[in-house]
Structures are given as C-alpha cells and as structure tokens.
Amino acid sequence: MPFAAALLDLDGTLLDTIPDLADASNAMLAELGLAGLPQEQVATYVGKGTPNLVARLLQARDTAAGRADPEARFREALASFQRHYHQCNGRRAILYPGVVEGLQAMRAQGMKLAIVTNKPTEFTLPLLRLKGLDTYFDQIVCGDTCAEKKPHPMPMLHACKLLGVQAAQALAIGDSLNDAQAARAAGVRVLAVPYGYNEGSSVHDLDVDAIVTSIEDAARWASEH
Ligand SMILES: O=C(O)COP(=O)(O)O
Ligand SMILES: [Mg+2]
Hints:
- The protein is α/β, with parallel strands linked by helices.
- The chain folds into 2 domains: 145 residues, HAD superfamily/HAD-like (Rossmann fold, 3-Layer(aba) Sandwich), CATH 3.40.50.1000; 71 residues, Orthogonal Bundle (DNA polymerase, domain 1).
- 44% of the residues lie in helices and 12% in strands.
- The protein is built from 9 helices and 8 strands.
- β4, α6 and β5 form a beta-alpha-beta unit.
- α1 crosses α4.
- The longest helix has 19 residues.
- It binds 2-phosphoglycolic acid and magnesium ion (MG).
- This is Phosphoglycolate phosphatase.
- InterPro entries: HAD-like_hydrolase_sf (IPR050155), HAD-SF_hydro_IA (IPR006439), HAD-SF_hydro_IIIA (IPR006549), HAD_2 (IPR041492), PGPase_prok (IPR037512).
- It is an enzyme of class 3 (hydrolase).
C-alpha cells in the first residue's frame, strides 16, 4: 500500500537554520556576560527544542559555581534567546537542495504532508511563511503542540490523527535520533537525511528504514515502497 502521508522534520531536514540559531544563541550569551560558542558546537545542541538548547548553552558557558537561583538564570536566558531569535529567525536560514522538488513530488503522488518539529510554534509559523514553505502542509505540529516532544511518539501520532491516516501509512523524514526514535515508537516508517544535525553523532548509527540524500530522493523512495 502506498504511503498516505509524510511527516517532515524542519530544522536540519528542510532548512539549515543553524546560522540564525547560532546568532540568537551568541546574542543571548553576550547579554548574560558569557563568551560565545562556534556555530558547529551550537548545532550539536539543536534537536530537542528551544528550552533544551538554552539549557545546554548555559551548561557550556555559565559555570559560576553556587549560583543562587539557577531557575531564574535559565528563565532570563530563555527570554533573551527568544527575543533575539524572533529578530533573526529566517534571516540566514536556507532551504536544502531538492526540498521544493521533493514536496511537490510527494503532493503529486497524493500524499498528505505535515511538519512535525520540536521548534516552538511562535518561530515555526513565521519561518515557514518567510521561506515560502507554508503552502505545502496540511498540518503543522510544533514542539509546544503536544504535552511531549520528539523523541516521544506523541507528536507523530498527533500528526497522523490530524491528517486522518494510520501510523502504518505514514512516512517520517528527519535528520536526527529524535525523529528516528519518535517514528519507531509510533510505528511510522522513517528515512534520515545525512546533511542535518544529529546532536554530533553519525546518522549511519540511526535505526531508520533508509538514508536518503535529499527530500527529492525521499519522494522517490516513497514511490518505490
Ligand atoms: O528546535 C529544535 O530543537 C529542532 O527542531 P526540529 O525538530 O525541526 O529538528
Ligand atoms: Mg531536525
């Protein structure tokens, strides 16, 4: 039976968002009086959502022992990151090659399309609009849509329900262990792209059905399975 739907990850799969995420990260660190981090290091902290990214940035830089109120420090850092990311979100982000072709091909194959991202809604919707991707998707599930984020299966299952398809008829496409684990736990088949951010690990170690070179290649794989 052909796939009825594709569940697409956003950061590291459709868009290279690291330049903007690194700019916002370093603006936040500077505001807190902390040294910046190279883009490649920030990339290894992306994948489990914005609060997790901020917590890892603080862990890397905010070593002041015995800080009186670490919770207040975290809230300050998160608010600063959010303010800066709203300013630079989409400014330097670029579409990976084959994304538009792949989305068009999947639509032409009759597949429904959903975004399943850990990025919060407040950043996801303007980013999709800015990059001209908003018209391709029937549903958008963000990091704050469900009670749990990927690697929990809940966002994948929620997307299937919104699309009106069974998990077994859906195909997830992502760049990280968060996508692979969420899909496996949801009973959704899953492809990985090798060009994204897998928290610093190789995609070749992921439990996925195949590694594809692009979204266009994923559309081809879907039409053949
Ligand atoms: O916001 C993140 O941490 C990652 O987002 P993604 O799920 O689209 O890769
Ligand atoms: Mg990703």
